[in-house]
Amino acid sequence: MPRAISGLQGAHRARRQLTRRAVIARQLDQIAPGTAAVQTHAGEDGRAKWVVLADADGRPVGADAEQHRAAYGLLRRLLPELDWTGPRTYDVATGTVTGTESAA
């Protein structure tokens, strides 16, 4: 019986992740149409200093400063468990965040 419960919990978790990914994709498209990736770059104090909204080919999406702030804020709100102090890339298609820690 515990395996069945674990399986159900895993299915619920996967469904929540898919739903969250779809919400993020839809909202990013409303903020800046064509956004396929959000790249954050941290400054010396660890806070994000600039954000790049990129299309599927890696080219910057035409967006103003408010759209960049909105996209970054969206990711911080919907993915609060992630550490955004270093450079990160959110891939809209997969819902994954990758990043590299800066060398000290």
Provide a concise account of the structure shown.
This protein has helices at residues 2-31, 65-78; strands spanning 37-42, 48-54, 88-91, 96-99. By secondary structure, the protein is of the alpha+beta class.
Written overview of the protein:
The structure is a single chain. This protein has 2 helices and 4 strands. A 4-stranded antiparallel sheet has the order 2-1-3-4, covered by helices on one side. Helix 1 packs antiparallel against helix 2. The longest helix is centred in the first third of the chain and has 30 residues, at 2-31. It is globular. The N and C termini lie far apart (48 Å). The model has no long low-confidence stretch (mean pLDDT 83). The chain has 104 residues and is an alpha+beta fold. It is 42% helix and 20% strand. The protein has one domain (2-99).
